[in-house]
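Researcher: I'd like a candidate sequence for this fold, 93 residues long. If you have to choose between options at a position, lean toward the conservative one.
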């Protein structure tokens, strides 16, 4: 089963790890773009992106997935799409 996962904060890391640890075929991870954090405004990747990269998963980041990411999502041909604290609205497409 081809799974696409969408999530961003710490809260969304555990479900992603559960999918990976239970041998689901996670074909792509969509997360919010990196953001400046702290007083020095250091560009920081979201926790889900960090885990996805560590696990060797393909990561996608768009300001608006329904505008920019629809084609990439279609190309992955997922059987299942899971969202957990993703923070964007998905279009019908």
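Model: Candidate sequence:
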């Amino acid at each position: 089963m081809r799974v696409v996962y969408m999530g961003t904060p710490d809260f969304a890391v555990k479900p992603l790890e559960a999918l990976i640890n239970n041998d689901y075929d996670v074909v792509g991870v969509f997360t919010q773009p990196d953001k400046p954090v702290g007083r020095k405004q250091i560009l920081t990747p979201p926790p889900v992106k960090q885990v996805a990269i560590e696990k060797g998963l393909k990561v996608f980041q768009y300001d608006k997935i329904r505008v920019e990411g629809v084609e990439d999502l279609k190309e992955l041909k997922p059987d299942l799409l899971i969202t957990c604290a993703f923070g964007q609205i998905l279009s019908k497409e």
